[in-house]
Design a protein that fits this description.
mainly beta, four-stranded antiparallel sheet, four-stranded mixed sheet, 18 strands
């Protein structure tokens, strides 16, 4: 087991590790602009923090940083994508979307987990990286941190942002499906929200200034591939990106001026899915208000 960092150095270590990670994955030009890569880069697993459940158990919360701007990577659960102890399968994704995906999944550990570590090991592009999850007090997270990290809001001095609750999502039909290759699979989910925060488009920023990391606010719902090779999956209608893409017209909630689509009648979000290759897939429907999220998964066996 690694020696825990002294209290007071945790935040510094987080910033140091992040700085090293960013420095090693992007070149800086003389103008101060960073060069990012469309493809060929690695994915770094990330431990976001932990939260306590009412029964005394804990959730270890993970995300990841895909250093590519466009490339999606498929890493099946196994030696190259494992969580231990108790793995290799602890519910982690196997299809990695571009850029920084925060608070992507949770792993429940018992109340007596103590000072043990849960380690996510991920090998991409021939390089192995690890994320170490522990119950160090400084790593506790709450919904305000999620709103700040994902949506760049939650600082209301009167505390109104803290009244925000995550959207709720429900599936229509079974959570396990089977379908032949090339056959349409119809899926529907419904979502509701408390109306907080007030909807707004993603900020456009000012010419010559860095763009804010803020995304659009307001309830929105999208389906995406969580497990399986997403290159084999087609959604109809096409879904907006759930990951940050700050380029103009990128169909990402972080794209300047992007607005959440008008909510459909009854809050129902249907989609038709087609698979071009057999295998086991997990599709996730994600509802978010721009800071807090809810989701449901559908496991699909494609013959």
């Amino acid at each position: 087991m690694r020696t825990p960092l002294p209290v007071g150095l945790i935040g510094f270590a987080r910033l140091t590790v992040l700085g090293v990670m960013l420095t090693t994955t992007a070149l800086t030009t003389t103008s101060g602009q960073q060069l990012v890569y469309s493809s060929g880069q690695t994915v770094a697993p990330a431990f976001e923090g932990w939260e306590q459940n009412p029964d005394g158990s804990f959730n270890m919360v993970f995300g990841y940083f895909n250093r590519n701007l466009d490339e999606h990577l498929h890493v099946p659960v196994g030696p190259d994508n494992s969580l231990e102890p108790g793995g290799p399968d602890r519910g982690q994704p196997s299809y990695f979307l571009p850029r920084r995906n925060r608070f992507h999944f949770k792993v429940k550990v018992p109340a007596d987990f103590g000072d043990r570590e849960l380690v996510w090991t991920l090998t991409t592009q021939g390089q192995t990286e690890k994320a170490y999850a522990t119950l160090i007090p400084e790593y506790i997270i709450d919904k305000q941190l999620a709103m700040l990290d994902v949506g760049n809001f939650g600082r209301d001095p009167e505390g109104r942002d803290l009244l925000n609750e995550p959207p709720t999502v429900e599936l229509e039909g079974a959570a396990q499906r089977a379908v032949p290759v090339g056959t349409l699979l119809g899926l529907t989910a419904s979502a509701t929200d408390d109306g907080m925060p007030e909807p707004r488009p993603a900020p456009r920023g000012r010419p010559g200034t860095p763009r804010s990391r803020s995304n659009a606010l307001g309830l929105r719902v999208a389906w995406f591939v969580y497990r399986g090779d997403g290159a084999n999956v087609t959604f109809d209608p096409p879904q907006f990106k759930i990951h940050p893409d700050y380029r103009d017209h990128s169909n990402s909630p972080w794209s300047p001026g992007w607005e959440a689509p008008e909510l459909p009648p009854g809050g129902r979000f249907p989609v038709n899915v087609t698979f071009s290759e057999p295998g086991a897939y997990v599709l996730r429907v994600l509802a978010t208000d721009g800071g807090l999220t809810g989701h449901r998964d559908v496991a699909v066996t494609v013959r």
